[in-house]
Amino acid sequence: MPTTESLVELAKGRHSIYKLGKESPVPDSKIEELVNQAILSVPSAFNTQSTRLVVLLHKEHEKLWDIAADSFKPLIESGTLPEETFKNQTQPKLQGFRNAVGTILFYEDPAHVKPFQEKFPTYKDQFVPWTEHTNAMHQYFLWIGLESLGFGANLQHYNPLIDSAVAKEWDVPTDWRLIAQLVFGKPEAGAQEKPKKPVEERVKIYGRL
Ligand SMILES: Cc1cc2nc3c(=O)[nH]c(=O)nc-3n(C[C@H](O)[C@H](O)[C@H](O)COP(=O)(O)O)c2cc1C
């Protein structure tokens, strides 16, 4: 029987972990099971099921972060990003992600949203924001799910910079919209506890008995 305590424990234990290593606490099959469970159990507005997940492990994961590094080259060449900034800031960060076990790419497939917009014109403008909501739910499920397997993780947004190279490398349909990247690996340093704003300012409860 699942308990509230174990859910709260996972929620409290979730942090952005940036120092990640390549040693995996579980076989890859456990990651696959978790990802499949996310796709099957996370809800979507009107049950559109528009979220798509691409999981890159080990060498394929490393390739992703090499692609990300390469994606910065035109920005450096055009002078948009100073080479020093890339070398001192961007590159070490990307190398940190590369040192991990895997990355989950979160996509939305618009083909599964358009028919609903046509069928329910009253909600037409809500469907795209709702895709962001369901996508974020998948992200959170997998963030704490990976934590439950013994991984640490952090959430990144190198889209749209990496979109076309990634689509080409892994044969991702070009109309899928890349939303986020969740990097995970062996946690090698404790999380930094961040300050929390007071609960009383952020929650209102009426009608409490
Ligand atoms: C919607 C969203 C977007 C985020 N984007 C990034 C990001 O692009 N890069 C990053 O390093 N962290 C990103 N984060 C992580 C947040 O900065 C982090 O969760 C927040 O500061 C709280 O810290 P914690 O995760 O350790 O609790 C994002 C988090 C959320 C929920």
From TrEMBL:
Keyword Cytoplasm appears in the UniProt entry: yes
InterPro entries the record matches: Frm2/Hbn1, Nitroreductase, Nitroreductase-like
Subcellular localization, as worded in the UniProt entry: Cytoplasm; Nucleus
Record's keyword annotation contains ATP-binding: no
Keyword annotations: Cytoplasm, Nucleus, Oxidoreductase
Domain Nitroreductase positions: 12-186
A Pfam family of this chain: Nitroreductase
Entry's family note: Belongs to the nitroreductase family.
Name used for this protein in its record: Nitroreductase
Organism field: Aspergillus heteromorphus CBS 117.55
